[in-house]
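Field log, afternoon session.

UNIT: design team B
ACTIVITY: writing a sequence onto a fixed backbone
BACKBONE:
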């Protein structure tokens, strides 16, 4: 329930102030609920949210997709991966953005990456904006049916039993894990619910 984060998200308030990532019902330009960081007048941001750990395979190409938006002030965002959902574990930086105050509307971001070895990884999003900035929003839109509003989505490529590449999107919604498979043209093949 807004403004609380969903159960599948871990929040870490590294600078221990009273500002941290919270959810909101909507913002213009992003469909569905968003997660947002509200500024501190006196202290720079150092606040993370993390996805649950998922199994990744070395040599496989993975994609993270999300939208971001600022509110008339410069904001700073880092995306990283680590073995557990904790700031100290985020040892591989995938993206660092300094978002200008002049940025208009919500922007789509794609991050393609590989992992160094097979194992479980969490994706972390850090707000590290200067003190007295404004609001940084993050939301999600990916190739899933329109009736699903999501906050996080990890996309990755996998192989079916015939060796053909299929596009796969895995995320949590209302406590369930959903998986959608797409062919290379992004045509939906099928949906599998409650996978673990």
């Amino acid at each position: 329930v807004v403004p609380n984060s969903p159960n599948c998200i871990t929040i870490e308030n590294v600078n221990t102030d009273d500002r941290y990532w919270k959810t909101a019902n909507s913002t213009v330009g992003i469909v569905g609920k968003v997660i947002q960081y509200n500024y501190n007048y006196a202290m720079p941001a150092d606040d993370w949210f993390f996805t649950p750990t998922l199994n990744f395979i070395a040599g496989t190409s993975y994609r993270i997709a999300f939208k971001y938006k600022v509110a008339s002030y410069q904001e700073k965002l880092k995306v990283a991966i680590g073995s557990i959902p904790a700031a100290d574990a985020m040892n591989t930086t995938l993206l660092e953005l300094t978002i200008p105050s002049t940025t208009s509307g919500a922007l789509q971001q794609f991050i393609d990456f590989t992992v160094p070895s097979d194992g479980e990884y969490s994706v972390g999003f850090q707000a590290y904006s200067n003190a007295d900035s404004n609001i940084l929003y993050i939301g999600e839109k990916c190739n899933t049916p329109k009736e699903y509003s999501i906050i996080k989505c990890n996309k990755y490529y996998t192989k079916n039993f015939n060796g053909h590449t299929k596009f796969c999107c895995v995320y949590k919604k209302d406590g369930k894990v959903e998986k959608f498979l797409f062919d290379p043209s992004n045509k939906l093949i099928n949906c599998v619910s409650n996978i673990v």
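LOG NOTE: The radius of gyration is 17 Å.
NEXT ACTIVITY: expression trials, pending approval
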